[in-house]
Design goal:
heterotrimer, A alpha/beta (341), B alpha/beta (334), C mainly alpha (317), A: 341 residues, alpha/beta, 8-stranded mixed β-sheet, 4-stranded antiparallel β-sheet, 12 strands, C: mainly alpha, 78% helix
């Protein structure tokens, strides 16, 4: 557990619902999602493609463009303010200074015709009035030094294509952290990178987070990354959080059948090859075709019964702070214990 | 190395050097040594895994074995016959027995054909069958890879990524191959779908006695499916050994870094593991460092490592490693 | 950069040579030579013509290859020869008429960029709004109506209704700016219409594409306002493909002005070329084509340099 964490929450999302409309049908990308992030916490949101994990972050940043997207409802309480109620102008001043975001593809997330230094300096000058260009560039160089980019004073004059993939992502981290944000969303920040570079970038991000006391929400499909770094984990499926708890809760005593499936579907390097790979049957749900009043996981779930198809499971506490939305969690948990994994 | 009687594929000294040209006259100014002398053999019915980062040349090894690149040099002996000695017609006949499945299934499926026709096409290439017979066989193959017969009329874009990958596997199977190169087949898939496809591949191997070359960047997945693993870096093998040994006694510093970077979804195990963070990124293959290719990132590199390249040698029976600091018997030279 | 420009200019020489050979050869391959036309015209005027003397005087008695080398030798010395029909050197004709054509072309280009770029960006920013639809409809109309039709309508109706017609007496840009504009304004705007329509759509599409890229999303996430996102992040990146298209259309702009020059009685190279082609005035045609080719190639060089300036990823070489 991190000593950075303080009790109160920096972000509280309540009943967030975001939909996309196309060809007259509604795709409920985020479907009644509630969670909170404490100050200084490293929080992970795990989900597969189409689970709504990226949309949930973009919703908090109010970066869902209409059309086709639309935040239908919910509250986003950030640092005591409801972001759904603030003006566009105010939201603009929050983005990049109090809440930042890092994206998946470092190759395309930086403007190819601006120097790295100018892009970091832009972020600083947008939010700190009266900082001169030279001053901002100087700070950009210092930030690049913090993320271990060699010769930062000369590298700020480079364009993104002169940086390698890992360096670009580190520059993105430097940019996102340039105004010491209170909250940082990192959307699959290492998926596009090589494994050994992934480790560097994650380490760097964790370092910067501790240095600045930033709360981090890491959005990923990679369970392993999360086990090493995160304080708390939220599992997303079909636009909802199906299970949330501390990292140990989720990995050692998971309560939702989907979480169990995910954990056992990853080949384990530390177990003999004969341990067998568990497979979750079927395909991820099509959220424009799934009815709202059911468990989105029912047709892939080994524990599914009638109630799962007609009623939406409510959040229940499996243990203090460990919440799960499943009618059959006790049955599943008993099986998990028996299997002894 | 360590060639045995039952080997289906033996590769000796495979090199693929792509020329780099410049200017109007296409002058060759250098070579990208994508694969720079690798040797291995795969026993019938087994799987060789090749793991490496982008730029390591792992996919090029697959292309070199299949002779899909004109720049491949070296001996590729398939079922006792050297591919270099064969005529064009013979090679074509042999190509049926060697198939490939690639990372992006959408790019390799003709979007204007329904999946039954896509697979029946392969069936009819080597079997004299009527259209109806080939179609029936195609549906059988679809069912085998877990696609319902009812979906045979659909087109590739109507399937999800995992299903498309299954269709590609079915199409490869239509040729009744003995050997399949699986090039990053599960890299683009979600975790739950990845497990399905890996399991399917292992099931098919058991059913038909297939031999695989499984290329990937995720050590956990590659190890899970492979009997033997080659760890590749900048065109060369750094370590080659049995899958079980690789995690238990990795010898090469690069392998150890890869293992350390591979996530394990168990916080108790993960927090207790050895952590090796490599500096920098893989160098440009056009300009590899002198000496050991890994020396620029190796935490244990000495002057000698920067001067000459260590050979891949058998330090323990069946365990090959190319590192100066690993001694006979596999002990670390301090 | 300097080295690159010198290299490119040196590379122009072989290309220009090829253009010279081709023009020369094609002229000689056309049925009917300059000699025939001259004889016909003189005979019609009731003069007695000694064909052989005339042939020698025009220099057409020598073999074509010799003629070519005599001409090219002159070109090397900066002498494009004399017109066969007019009592003037080709160099003199071009020096007089080329600035007129260039002015018309550059004015057209100026209007095209002035209107298409900001409007295209605005349409993209307000995609599917009423102004977006309106401008897109006009863009298609401008592209669809042939230039000569617009030009004829503009020439005929204002004259019939208000007795207004554009100047047709040429005045130099630096001698009498008002008179010069009075002459060029209307034809250059007409000439720019189709180009503007095309470029507006191009700019709009490119901007829309850029607006969907990851780095624009990054810009929003940084807290940029809409104006800043459009100007600093979308605009410059969208211009990269637009410059390519505009560069490619430059040759067309100069070539396509022949009709406008004719209708508005603008004494440019285009008009001259038509007359010269009619009469098979070899030296004038060769000279004009040569000079136009060099100009188009120089403009392409400028486009490539713009490219480098716009996009740091481009390697000039």
């Amino acid at each position: 557990m991190d000593d950075n964490i303080r009790g109160d929450s920096i972000l509280e999302v309540r009943h967030l619902r975001t939909s996309f409309f196309a060809d007259g049908s509604e795709l409920r990308a985020v479907d009644d999602m509630s969670y909170s992030v404490r100050r200084g916490e490293f929080c992970a949101i795990i989900g597969e493609s189409g689970s709504g994990k990226s949309v949930s972050a973009l919703s908090v940043m109010r970066l869902i463009s209409y059309p086709p997207g639309f935040i239908k409802g919910g509250e986003i309480i950030f640092d005591g303010r409801d972001l759904m109620g603030v003006s566009d102008k105010e939201m603009q001043s929050i983005r990049g200074s109090e809440i930042s975001m890092i994206f998946q593809e470092p190759g395309t997330a930086l403007n190819p015709v601006m120097t790295i230094g100018a892009q970091i300096a832009e972020n600083i000058r947008l939010h700190e009035k009266g900082v001169s260009r030279a001053e901002a560039e100087k700070r950009a160089a210092e930030l690049l030094a913090l993320v271990d980019i060699p010769n930062p004073e000369t590298r700020i004059r480079d364009y993104p294509h002169q940086f390698s993939g890992g360096m670009k992502q580190r520059a993105m981290i430097a940019m996102a952290m340039s105004c010491r944000p209170k909250l940082l969303f990192a959307d699959e920040p290492t998926t596009a990178l090589d494994v050994t570079v992934q480790a560097q970038v994650l380490e760097q991000m964790n370092d910067m987070r501790r240095r600045f006391g930033t709360s981090l929400v890491l959005i990923t499909h990679n369970l392993g990354v999360v086990a090493r770094y995160a304080d708390s984990v939220k599992i997303m499926y079909g636009g909802r959080i199906v299970e949330s708890g501390t990292t140990d809760d989720i990995f050692l005593s998971p309560a939702h059948p989907y979480t169990m499936g995910l954990i056992r579907a990853v080949p384990r390097l530390d177990l003999p090859r004969s341990h067998g790979l568990y497979t979750i049957r079927g395909e991820p749900p099509d959220m424009s075709a799934t009815p709202p009043d059911c468990c989105p996981f029912y047709y892939r779930c080994p524990y599914e019964y009638e109630r799962c198809r007609t009623e939406r499971p409510a959040d229940e506490e499996a243990s203090p702070g460990h919440v799960c939305a499943c009618f059959r969690r006790e049955l599943a948990a008993a099986d998990w214990k028996e299997a002894g994994t | 190395m360590s060639e045995k009687q039952g080997d289906l594929l033996v590769v000796r000294g495979l090199k693929v050097h792509f020329p780099v040209t410049r200017g109007l006259l296409k002058r060759t100014v250098g070579y990208v040594k994508a694969v720079d002398g690798v040797s291995f053999s795969i026993p019938r019915g087994e799987t060789l895994g090749i793991v490496g980062e982008s730029g390591s040349g792992k996919s090029t090894v697959g292309n070199g074995v299949l002779r899909a690149t004109p720049y491949a040099v070296g001996d590729v002996i398939f079922d006792g016959v050297n591919l270099a000695d064969m005529s064009k017609a013979e090679t074509r006949r042999l190509r049926r027995r060697m198939q490939v499945v690639m990372q992006d299934p959408y790019a390799s499926l003709d979007p204007r054909m329904n999946v039954r026709d896509l697979i029946a096409e392969g069936v009819r290439i080597h079997r004299s069958m009527t259209k109806a017979e080939a179609a029936a066989r195609a549906e059988e193959l679809l069912e085998l890879v877990g696609i319902r017969r009812a979906f045979a009329d659909r087109f590739p874009h109507e399937f999800s990524g995992g299903q498309r990958q299954r269709i590609c596997i079915a199409r490869a199977l239509a040729m009744e191959p003995e050997f399949i190169v699986c090039d990053e087949v599960v890299s683009a898939l979600d975790v739950s779908i990845q497990a399905q496809v890996v399991t399917l591949l292992m099931e098919l191997q058991r059913l038909f006695g297939l031999t695989y070359m499984f290329i990937g960047h995720d050590l956990s997945v590659v190890r899970y499916i492979s009997n033997t693993i080659a760890v590749m870096y900048l065109g060369k093998f750094m370590e080659l050994t049995e899958s079980e040994t690789l995690y238990e006694t990795p010898l090469h510093p690069y392998t150890r870094a890869l293992i350390s970077a591979a996530p394990i979804p168990d916080p108790r195990v993960d927090r207790a593991r050895e952590r090796i963070l490599l500096k920098g990124e893989i160098p440009n293959p056009l300009d590899p460092p002198p000496g050991c290719r890994f020396c620029t990132r190796c935490p244990y590199a000495q002057d000698a490592c920067r001067e000459s390249e260590p050979a891949l040698r058998e330090v323990v029976p069946g365990h090959f490693v190319a590192c100066r600091r690993v001694g006979e018997g596999g002990q670390w030279i301090g | 950069m300097g080295k690159y420009i010198v290299k490119r200019i040196l590379l122009l020489i072989p290309t220009v040579l090829v253009v010279c050979v081709l023009t020369f050869a094609m002229m000689r391959m056309l049925p009917g030579s300059a000699l025939d036309f001259m004889v016909k015209r003189l005979t019609a005027a009731g003069q007695n013509v000694d064909v052989e003397t005339l042939r020698v005087r025009l220099g057409l008695d020598k073999p074509a290859v010799t003629q070519f080398f005599i001409w090219i030798g002159g070109v090397m010395r900066g002498d494009l020869g004399n017109s066969l029909f007019q009592y003037e050197s080709v160099g003199g004709i071009i020096a007089r008429e080329l600035p007129v054509t260039l002015e018309l072309g550059f004015l057209e280009l100026f209007w095209t960029i002035l209107f298409s770029v900001p409007l295209g960006l605005w349409c993209a920013a307000r995609q599917d709004g009423i102004p977006d639809y309106t401008f897109r409809v006009f863009a298609i109309i401008f592209m669809a109506i042939p230039t000569f039709l617009v030009a004829s309508v503009v020439l005929v109706y204002p004259a019939a209704w208000w007795g207004y017609a554009p100047n047709i007496k040429y005045a130099g840009l630096f001698q009498d700016f008002r008179a010069n504009m009075g002459m060029f304004l209307v034809p250059s705007i007409i000439g720019a219409l189709a180009q503007t329509g095309m470029q507006l759509r191009m700019v709009r599409t490119c901007c829309l594409e850029t607006m969907r890229t990851d780095f624009v999303r990054t810009a929003w996430a940084k807290g940029c306002g809409e104006g800043r996102v459009l100007v600093r992040h979308v605009f410059r990146n969208s211009m990269i493909p637009v410059v390519t298209v505009i560069g490619g259309s430059v040759a067309g702009v100069f070539g396509g002005n022949v009709i406008l020059e004719n209708l508005f009685n603008i004494p440019g190279v285009g008009q001259q070329l038509i007359t010269a082609l009619d009469q098979r005035d070899y030296t004038v045609i060769q000279g004009c084509v040569l000079v136009m080719a060099v100009i188009v190639m120089l403009i392409n060089l400028i486009v490539d340099i713009c490219y480098k300036w716009l996009d740091p990823r481009v390697e000039l070489d």
